[in-house]
Design a protein that fits this description.
Chain lengths: 336, 178
């Protein structure tokens, strides 16, 4: 099965759960910026949660599906329509053969996800289909989608086939069949252009001046124009954060959500395409559950940090994983 | 455990709290550390890197020379006579951080990083030297370039160098001959 790219949109790449296992060789993880959206969209079409899907930034692509296809949309609302029918987020949708999917600009959020039953079947590179643009790795020849690309689609799982059949059965009169059910709102975050993000104190937070340590949590940062899949550059206007003494560090590993403080005093939140190691002081680590909120911010949006303990961050993470597990079990149970 | 990332003087362990919460995971790591046995490392590989020094391949060779009151030839001689050790890979796929740069060559990074450093460029950043595996932005002083491929995702292993390898640079003429 093939999906034809009629128009690529602003920046659409193939992303999965990431290229783990090669950071010791300096190879970044990449993968979906908003992992939760990727996982939930995949669940809805019966895929492995970390299967490869399309990540579409700000302006979505125009695609045509040759054959009958089960899809789900997640993340930012890109105003996607199928042959003129407006499609909702977070529901399985059956497209008849020959459907053209069009998109507009992001209404809320920054990155939309399109999961297809069976996943996007580009060849895995070092164990992952994720596109890492800086090294031209993975995805479609290591690059963003282009007009004329033909995306190979994998075979749907047994569960995916059952979901597709039940959606079609529930909507016998609709050409584009939208499921009567979907992911609950408690599972997916509500994206805003002004996010409050919880942060666990970083290894080097103690090096901040007392004033900066306080301002880290009182400043409303602006998302800089240079922000991308590698990192979000936060601007605090004319009062950058400062260390009490200059600090020379040996490079050490960093993580998704590490908040670095370069000498200029404007923090950077490291995201999916982060380098594996870094030498700037690490003043915080964004709680995993709040990373999707960061991933859905656009340049010019606002962000505030709020402190959280490691214990509480972990509690929230485990609660979220439990929610996902329950959703997965419910979908499997109803399509047994 | 998801993966382990060694650096100069640290080892990071990425883990999934849904499989083992922090306290339990940290205890397991502590226990493993307390139980470390002696292990003999394999004899390190020695990898020779042919480098075209100076000219278009090494636009900062003169800067490094001037910073130390040396001639360009002195810099080439010192850089290619030393023996280096791969301390870690990071920054970009297969980028080796090499220890062993003669102190007389240590040079601060450029004030303004270049937007494009070609793949294979050999640079000096402070007291370290390294090789850019991919064309990327970079702030190190570029003194030469190798035609060896440091990273190829389709090769096994994908990186030319591994942690612990011994590296020597050999000066070659612009056409690649010795």
């Amino acid at each position: 099965m093939i999906c034809h790219v009629l128009h690529p949109g602003q920046l659409a790449t193939v992303q999965d759960g990431g290229r783990t296992g090669h950071q010791a060789e300096g190879i970044p993880v990449a993968g979906a910026m908003d992992e939760l959206s990727l996982r939930v969209a995949n669940l809805l079409v019966g895929n492995d949660e970390r299967a490869a899907a399309l990540e579409c930034t700000l302006v979505g692509p125009t695609l045509r599906f040759d054959e009958h296809t089960l899809i789900a949309l997640g993340g930012a609302d890109l105003g996607v329509t199928a042959d003129g029918v407006t499609l909702p987020l977070w529901r399985p949708i059956c497209l008849p053969a020959g459907t053209t999917l069009s998109a507009a600009s992001a209404v809320r959020g920054c990155r939309g996800y399109l999961a297809v039953a069976g996943g996007i079947d580009v060849p895995p590179v070092l164990g992952s289909r994720s596109t890492y643009l800086r090294a031209s790795l993975g995805g479609v020849d290591g690059r963003a989608l282009r007009r004329g690309d033909r995306l190979p689609l994998g075979a749907p799982t047994e569960l995916g086939r059952r979901i597709g059949a039940s959606v079609a059965r529930d909507r016998p009169r609709d050409r584009v069949a939208i499921a009567t059910w979907g992911a609950s709102t408690s599972l997916v975050p509500f994206y805003t252009s002004s996010a409050t993000v919880r942060v666990v104190e970083g290894e080097h937070a103690r090096l901040l001046t007392p004033d900066s340590a306080e301002r880290m949590y009182s400043t409303e940062f602006r998302v800089g124009a240079q922000s991308d899949r590698m990192g979000y550059r936060l601007e605090s206007g004319d009062s950058p954060l400062a260390l009490s003494a200059p600090c020379e560090l040996l490079s050490e590993a960093v993580a998704f959500g590490t908040v670095q403080l370069p000498p200029g005093g404007n923090p950077i939140v490291l995201m999916a395409d982060r380098q594996t190691t870094g030498g700037y002081p690490r003043i915080g680590e964004v709680a995993s559950v709040d990373l999707p909120l960061v991933a859905q911010l656009k340049a010019g949006d606002r962000l505030r940090f709020r402190p959280i303990s490691l214990d509480d961050a972990q509690r929230l993470y485990l609660a979220r994983e439990d929610n996902i597990r329950q959703a997965r079990a419910a979908i499997a149970l109803h399509h047994h | 455990m998801i993966e382990v990332v060694p650096a100069f003087a640290s080892v990071a362990v990425h883990y999934d709290p849904a499989r083992a919460p922090y306290i339990r995971f940290a205890e397991a790591v502590q226990a493993a550390l307390a139980d470390l046995g002696e292990e003999s490392l394999p004899t390190p590989r020695t990898v020779e890197i042919p480098v075209r020094y100076g000219g278009e391949d090494g636009p900062d060779l003169g800067v490094v020379a001037a910073a130390h009151g040396l001639s360009a030839d002195d810099v080439v001689r010192l850089h290619s006579a030393a023996t280096y050790r791969v301390y870690m890979l990071g920054f970009a796929p297969g980028f080796p951080y090499l220890g062993g740069l003669p102190e007389s060559l240590a040079t601060p990074r450029r004030a303004e990083p270049r937007t494009t450093v070609p793949a294979g460029s050999v640079g000096i950043g402070g007291s370290q030297t390294g090789i850019y595996p991919l064309t990327t932005p970079g702030g190190w002083q570029i003194i030469g370039r190798t035609s060896l491929s440091l990273f190829d995702a389709l090769r096994m292993p994908p990186t030319l160098l591994a942690i612990g390898d011994i590296v020597r640079f050999r000066a070659v003429a612009p056409d690649g001959t010795a």
